[in-house]
Design a protein that fits this description.
Length: 135
């Protein structure tokens, strides 16, 4: 009986440990995807001046599921004509990131309007902050 109880406790501990590893891996993968997305976004805004909804849909194509759903949600909000800031924030809030990283990404939504230089600067600052968290 004691041996069965010990096996159950050990199994539960192993299950919890593996779940934690999977969650950390998902968070790291999502952060890495977002850093690459913001890199490309900054380049595309500077060089091609692609509209943001179309740009998000293009860049999401080769990203992981969390980043892809974030891009789709943000692009959908803009295509429906809703305010960019609130849509971007709500899309960022569901990402599996630390609270500080979600807040940094959510704040970017308010900086995506204006001239090209301001937008690129805001994207770069957000990218740098997320890259530091990834390290």
């Amino acid at each position: 009986m004691k041996l069965a109880g010990a096996a159950c406790v050990l199994g539960a501990a192993l299950w919890g440990w593996r779940r934690g590893v999977r969650e950390r891996r998902r968070r790291w993968d999502t952060l890495a995807d977002l850093v690459r997305l913001l890199d490309r976004m900054s380049e595309e805004i500077r060089l091609r001046r692609t509209s943001l909804p179309r740009l998000l849909r293009q860049l999401a194509a080769d990203r992981g599921p969390d980043c892809r759903s974030f891009c789709a949600a943000a692009a959908g909000v803009m295509e429906r004509g809703e305010p960019l800031e609130s849509g971007w924030r709500s899309a960022a809030e569901v990402l599996p990131l630390a609270a500080e990283d979600r807040e940094v990404l959510a704040e970017l939504g308010s900086s995506l309007t204006g001239d090209e230089e301001q937008v690129c600067k805001a994207v770069s600052l957000t990218r740098d902050s997320l890259a530091r968290s990834l390290e």
